[in-house]
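Hello forum,

I keep getting stuck at the same step: I have a sequence, I want structure tokens, and every attempt I make locally crashes halfway through. Rather than fight my setup again tonight, could one of you with a working pipeline run this one for me? It's a single chain of 242 residues.
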Amino acid sequence: MRVALFVTCVNDALYPATGVATVRLLERLGVSVDFPAAQTCCGQPQFNTGYRAETAPLVRRTVRAFEGYEYVVTPSGSCAAMIRGHYGQFGPEAAELGPRTYELTEFLVDVLGVTDVGAYFPHKVTYHPSCHGLRMLGLGERPLRLLRAVRGLELVGLPGAEECCGFGGTFAVKNPDVSAAMGADKVRNAVASGAEVLCGADNSCLMHLGGTMSRMRVLPELRPVHLAEILASTEKEPLAWV
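Reply #2:
Ran it on my machine without issues. Output:
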């Protein structure tokens, strides 16, 4: 099976290790991964801020970049939700990309049919379900099923898990005080869980929470880590900081 990786602009610019982990994980499971170099931003920041005309060229570019692939896999529920939920507003060609686009945990569980990916991560972990994955994609138990199958990992509940972390893309810029307060609540709940790692499937949310952890001085006792990096970790090739 061959898929295209949509790494997303946030991961490409700030968290390249997540893209590398996604490729390592998929290749370990027998999937060939292509990286179409023409990919850029999916247009979500512009779309959510109301700049529909400025979004259209980014949509067209994204559609062209992933033309011909049966599966497009992305380690971001947020960007997957943009393509699946909103590209249909930009015409039938754009709408056709939606059903071919999968958030990573969806692809693993629904397409490959696996929950045990051979990972090893001997740490106490709690999981934050980002809003787009939770509400727009309906990821449900998929990320948790994958985490429960990781050898050595102790999964603990996160109080108020379904509450927004406060990032919300441009929301954090337009409403910084509210955003910061919501992030602080999420971090306090993660600390209360006793976890060493706050795991998520969107680095945009983890970036916001990581900054909050730094300001609250709970690092490195509690760390933000993308789910793909945990699933890619093995005894022979552990996550770099382990």
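The longest strand covers residues 124-128. If your local run keeps crashing, start a new thread with the error log.
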